[in-house]
# Entry
Amino acid sequence: MRTFPVTLQHNHTLASHAHDWDQLTYAASGVMRVDTVAASWTIPPHTAVWVPAGIEHAEHMFAPVTMRTLYFAPRLVTNLPRGDCRAVNIPSLLRELIVHAALQGALDRRVRAHAHAIGMLLDQLAAVTTVPLQLPAPRDARARRVADLLREAPDEDAPVGVLARRAGASRRTIERLFSRDTGMTMAEWRRRLRLLHAVRLLAEGEPVTSVSLAVGYTSVSAFIAVFKREFGVTPGKYA
# Structure
């Protein structure tokens, strides 16, 4: 098992790439986003993203950020999926094990102390729970253009028809494409995008009131209610 600890004071993007080993990147502080052709995952502090070997992905770090990445030999971790990424909660013991492993640089199962540490890591990983921090990506180019427009301005209030025309399609076509490609209606996708942007802002220390306005909600109570319904927790969980 190999490790890669990094702390960044400026935003940084790693272009799309893949690894031969499975990857678990833990956000000790700050926020990152992982994009694949299928979806994106927003990773706030004390959460991690699982990226199986061979999955093409881009990484966006929003500074200041401290990440601790573990690379596992293929098939060493057996309980997490092989076909796509996952956002997972990191409990306190697993957090300490990740930090310990990062300090070692690499762990070799032929070394007794390292083998014990790897065993504990694998035991803890077997119990992690996933969190709904993913946003499916539309495949169609026209729908992707609409998605990009909304990513650039999460508080954008333009009607779907206006966005569709800017992408060279009709409202009905865009709504159909989002439903087909993402399994979500356009309204559901837009709401999830806004709330994931809110997760990032909350993790960066923005107050709930400011965040609700930044993602298009004029009522703080409405924002809190929608956030809790979507993620099962209040915005304070990520503040």
Summary: The chain is about 40% helix and 25% strand. The longest helix spans residues 186-203. The longest strand covers residues 57-72. The radius of gyration is 19 Å.
